[in-house]
Amino acid sequence: MDLTIHLYGYGYYMFNTLNALAMLRNTALYPAMINVVALMVTVFYAWKMAASRADGEWRQYVLKIAGMVLLINALLLPTASMNIKDHVEKHFWRVDNIPLAFALPIGMLEELGHLVTIGFEQAFAAINGKAAFNYYHYGTAFGARLSKEVLQAHVRNPEFISNMQGFIERCVIMPAMIGEQFTKE
Question: CA–CA separation, 29 vs 66, rounded Å?
């Protein structure tokens, strides 16, 4: 099963977040936390079994403990790998050793969202099939791509830079310091 997170910009931050989760999963603290919580829950249900009054009421607590052990062994201890695909920056990352309890629902929700996005892209595509009007340039990815490109824009004309700095100093900063036209708020 291929679990992929589809992103539209800032994929590096998701990669670092999943790496932090994988690092936590690889420490000795992770199984210790799971064992301590499982032990606490087992002791709690053991008290409930000891205090049960009706005949056979203790069986429901045994089933709860068995279900908890099954979920721990089926979802929390196994690991999975997740792919991160950034559609704006065109990067692809892979993170291993993610707990299956995290990777499985996230991967399925992300795949569903990506299928919906593909459906919108197909529904709103130009009829004549021109590639100039595609979803990357005009759809959901447009805003993320545009914000990335704006952050990378640089003014190269030194005269314009000098004029703009002078304008900001004389017409914005000085009146703001005097408190005439602008206030701190």
Answer: 23
* Residue 95 near residue 20, CB atoms below 8 Å: no
Q: What is the pTM of this model?
A: 0.64
Distance from C-alpha of 140 to C-alpha of 8, rounded to nearest angstrom: 8
Measure the N-to-C terminal CA separation of the chain; round to a whole number of Å.
Answer: 53
C-alpha torsion 44→45→48→53, nearest 10? -170
Specify the amino acid at residue 3.
L
How does pLDDT run along the chain (185 residues), one tens digit per residue?
679 999 887 889 999 999 999 999 999 999 999 999 999 999 999 999 988 887 888 889 999 999 999 999 898 889 999 999 988 888 999 999 999 999 999 999 999 998 888 787 777 666 665 555 555 566 666 777 777 778 888 888 889 889 988 988 888 888 777 776 766 56
117-131 in b/e form (b: 16+ CB < 10 A) is: beeebeeeeeeeeee
Dihedral angle of Cα 90, 95, 101, 106, to the nearest 10 degrees: 0
Mapped to the 3 state alphabet, what secondary structure does 1-66 carry? Answer: CCEEEEECCCHHHHHHHHHHHHHHHHCCHHHHHHHHHHHHHHHHHHHHHHCCCCCCCHHHHHHHHH
Q: What is the distance of C-alpha 125 from the center of its chain?
A: 28
